[in-house]
Amino acid sequence: MRAARRPARARLRDRFAASDPGLLRLTAGLRTAGAIALAVAALALLGTDVPHLVAGALAAMVATFAIREKQRGQQAVTLALGLPVALASMTLAAALHSNLVAGDVCFVLLIFCAVYGRRFGDRGTALGLIGFQIYFVSLFVGATVSGLPELYGAVALAFGCSALVRFALVPETPTGVLERLREAFRARLAQLLSAQVELLGAGPQDADRALERVREGTARLHETALLIQGRLAEGTTDEAVARLVQRRIADAEIAAERLGLSLLAARGAERADTLALHLPGAPIPSGGRQPVREEATVTLRRDLEALRLLVLHPVGETSGTALSHVRNRLLGYRDEENLPDASPAVQDAFRAVGEAARAVLGLRIALGGPQDESDDSPATARSREELDAEDAVLDAGEEALSEEPAGLRRPTTRAAVQVAVGSTLAMVGGELLSSDRWYWAVLTCWIVFLNTASTGEILVKGYRRLLGTVLGVLAGIVLAGAVGQHTWTAFALVLLFVFAMFYSAPLSYTLSSFFVTAALGLLYTLLHTYSLSVLVLRIQETALGAACGVIAAALVLPVQTDRRTNELLATVLERLGEVTRSAVEQLSGGPPVELLDQARDLDQALADLRAATKPLTHPVTPLRARRETARHVVALLETCAYHARSLAATAELLPTHPSIAADPRLRRAAGRIAHNIEAITEHVTDEHATAGIETGPSIASLLGRAGPGAPRYGRVTDRVLRHLQRLDEGVAGLARPLGVPVRTSDGT
């Protein structure tokens, strides 16, 4: 098979695409380092001295990383507006250079305005960031009124170099980013399939490690799917195409996740399958520790490898006869008569392989257009017809706008007040430590508030910045001694560290802080202001700034971690209830609704909750019981979200899929799930709530499900019942960790 002999270069490309979806981190690092290098080179050719080289380098960095808009036209406008903002900020800093009180007051007002500007979207955020950072650069290089003309020239040149790199040397278009994200999704899907193959045959000693790989692969695939969803609107010219790709990505993700659950069930872990997949660190259930011993397992392993090869085959490239034969065989498992003689759990794994092959086929058609159909088997032709019918009924829906809080309850206003207070404290304390380097404390206070929303998040971020700063200071001591006064060697290392800082930023804030501190140590060397006491002072100022940020967050309009997580938890439960109700209503024969957007909103709400619980799940937290509770609740919600997404995907198949028919009895069977979600939501939002959840007979028994002899077109499929049952169990499982009363169906 030609696909089996993939060149090493293609394998390396896939591995890199999977590690950095969309090459977003690589692009950010290259673009920022390139802008700095170009600005320094241009200024050096003009004979600029070292302080102005440093000012130009820092201005180029700010002009590059501050702009986050996706469309090139919007980026150009923001960059053009950013230059006068930068010059005005530098002028203000230079004019107030000798007036300590006025300078401090204006700096605090600037900080407030910069943070408040976030309410105006990406452009407001970028302009506020440019204003604050250029003021900081002015303090760093000691800008004065007499030196402004040369500094103006350095900053203007830096902005021009940033524009050149952004739009010409390292261009990035929404279409290109989306294409690379698709490649990353394909690569991560292949990695997940490899982990699932390992899980299938893992022995008792390797079972936990294999399951952990499946967990990681599932989470990374979901992360990439969310990134794609966030880029679809800008990366496609046709809304119908965007919705088609979104649907096919969701199908592939759900099919891959279901395949993993089926493999767990085949190992004898059916009752604990969903929780075992989503709970980090949970061992594989004891019933699933032994590998499957059936003869059909050899065929299953072969088919999993074949499915992986189908995923890896480049989209748009003609598939040979061998690949067509493999595709036909895998799609054949969607028909009962093609399943091998095996236990029900292993047969279900083969069904999952067939559904995953169908999802891969749909994804290839959505991304690469019509495929060669000459070698199609009847099963493959039927799958294509189903996909075509689904594509025909996809329609765009409008998203409802949410009402934003006003006044001090608005997050941007609250954060602006908190940062202003924290920066004032940092300014006073910083000047007590050093009248020359006090701005490091203010910078740290500012940074710990970026992309944080609760006291706990600020505390964790401050701790990570302090740790990275300490390690960076140690590295700076070594590098300063090694580089000495070799200017260009120091600049080369600074570029390397800047690239590493932006490349590692989404992965580790500690690592990013380490690189920026090491780079600053080299900049101090270039400015002839380096000393061990300066680097030690940076640690002190960083610790002070982080402490002031935490104090301001805790005392000024505080948002406690518990309160924020409860708000986000309630949002997740509301989104879960919406998706479940809409899917069940459609499966019961109700009018079609926009399920894709509802499922996307659920995924985003769950991602926000997962980020907000990081302070509770951090390894250094002393509250071990709360950490385990938070992890358990998030895992259960991820399980529920998976089954809700699957129900939504199945409901959207209703108009076109011959094996799924509307069944009005589902409304009654799913009523308990809806009631339990509402009861848990009420308990989360109101500590005095007395509502409890209900437990009782299985969903299938509530449904009064038709027997095996009932017509296939007249009953709900086994898969719908399985997802409803697991969703019912997952929602009920939330009651114990959240302290919600449980009542049986007889009222006890």
Automatic annotation (TrEMBL):
<keyword id="KW-1003">Cell membrane</keyword>
<feature type="transmembrane region" description="Helical">
    <location>
        <begin position="466"/>
        <end position="484"/>
    </location>
</feature>
<feature type="transmembrane region" description="Helical">
    <location>
        <begin position="490"/>
        <end position="507"/>
    </location>
</feature>
<keyword id="KW-1133">Transmembrane helix</keyword>
<dbReference type="Pfam" id="PF13515">
    <property type="entry name" value="FUSC_2"/>
</dbReference>
<feature type="domain" description="Integral membrane bound transporter">
    <location>
        <begin position="426"/>
        <end position="551"/>
    </location>
</feature>
<feature type="transmembrane region" description="Helical">
    <location>
        <begin position="514"/>
        <end position="536"/>
    </location>
</feature>
<feature type="transmembrane region" description="Helical">
    <location>
        <begin position="415"/>
        <end position="433"/>
    </location>
</feature>
<feature type="region of interest" description="Disordered">
    <location>
        <begin position="368"/>
        <end position="389"/>
    </location>
</feature>
<dbReference type="GO" id="GO:0005886">
    <property type="term" value="C:plasma membrane"/>
</dbReference>
<comment type="similarity">
    <text>Belongs to the YccS/YhfK family.</text>
</comment>
<keyword id="KW-0472">Membrane</keyword>
<feature type="transmembrane region" description="Helical">
    <location>
        <begin position="439"/>
        <end position="459"/>
    </location>
</feature>
<feature type="transmembrane region" description="Helical">
    <location>
        <begin position="124"/>
        <end position="145"/>
    </location>
</feature>
<feature type="transmembrane region" description="Helical">
    <location>
        <begin position="100"/>
        <end position="117"/>
    </location>
</feature>
<feature type="transmembrane region" description="Helical">
    <location>
        <begin position="21"/>
        <end position="44"/>
    </location>
</feature>
<feature type="transmembrane region" description="Helical">
    <location>
        <begin position="50"/>
        <end position="67"/>
    </location>
</feature>
<feature type="transmembrane region" description="Helical">
    <location>
        <begin position="76"/>
        <end position="94"/>
    </location>
</feature>
<feature type="transmembrane region" description="Helical">
    <location>
        <begin position="151"/>
        <end position="170"/>
    </location>
</feature>
<protein>
    <submittedName>
        <fullName>FUSC family protein</fullName>
    </submittedName>
</protein>
<dbReference type="InterPro" id="IPR049453">
    <property type="entry name" value="Memb_transporter_dom"/>
</dbReference>
<keyword id="KW-0812">Transmembrane</keyword>
